[in-house]
Design brief:
The protein has five helices and three strands; from the N terminus they run H-H-E-E-E-H-H-H. By secondary structure, it is mainly alpha-helical. The longest helix has 32 residues.
Length: 169
């Protein structure tokens, strides 16, 4: 592999790790915002999603109550880290900045949507098979949300990123 290619790959990894490091630093500095405000917004969005599916649902802070389930949305449930992983991966990819911005603008809502599918499905799991709630929540969905975030990035990288176009615009 040519030296310039190695340098470019190294630079991309540094950008990826730096953005993830920034996300962790923001989480540490603004922990209250992520664990309160972002979690409450996620709870409101989850409640609205449940209502769209025909269930009676309401929130109180981070708690979601519906006609079939109730649970608390904590900061880790708010898709903060999957979004950070997606943004870091898009920003580190060697594509034009307009393509990267397009990826972020389209990808962040897609990651949030996948997270909503996760949270709504957990409501049904809690109702239908409550004995498996923790396993599905912790083992299956936590892994799956990261895998699906990477899949969304791969879709962007192979379709919208622009292939091997030069980075500068």
């Amino acid at each position: 592999m040519p030296r310039s290619r190695n340098r470019s790959l190294f630079k991309n990894w540094i950008v990826f790790v730096a953005i993830l490091g920034l996300a962790v630093a923001i989480d540490q500095r603004y922990w209250r915002w992520i664990n309160n405000d972002l979690a409450e917004w996620t709870a409101e969005l989850t409640s609205a999603s449940l209502r769209l599916l025909g269930l009676a649902s309401q929130t109180n802070g981070r708690w979601v109550w519906s006609s079939i389930c109730s649970y608390e949305i904590i900061g880790e449930c708010a898709a903060y880290y999957p979004v950070a992983i997606f943004v870091a991966a898009v920003a580190a990819f060697p594509a034009r900045w307009t393509r990267r911005l397009l990826g972020i603008v389209l990808g962040v809502p897609a990651v949030v949507f996948v997270n909503q599918v996760r949270l709504v499905s957990l409501c049904y799991v809690q109702h239908w098979i409550p004995e498996y709630f923790e396993t599905i929540h912790i083992v299956i969905w936590q892994s799956l949300i990261i895998v699906l975030t990477v899949v969304l990035w791969l879709i962007w990288a192979t379709t919208l990123a622009g292939g091997n176009e030069p980075e500068s615009e």
